[in-house]
What does this fold into?
Amino acid sequence: MPRDPEPDWILQQRRIIGDRVRSQRMHANLTQENLRDLSGVERLTIQRIESGATDARIGWLLRIADALGIGLRDLLDG
It folds into this structure.
């Protein structure tokens, strides 16, 4: 049975979180490859998170936040 598409507000929040990941990564002067090396999260996954194309697992976000030297709240609350 196919899943219903995500509501627009969820897609919008995914994009906002992705924008925060990208912004923090760029502020740290890191490429997606650098962030992959520091976080252990695959570059394609980072790309998908930044574009809002995927639901980011909490474990991925925790690894990314740690690699960026920020708290998880900085990615979720801005």
Observations:
- The chain has a mean pLDDT of 95.
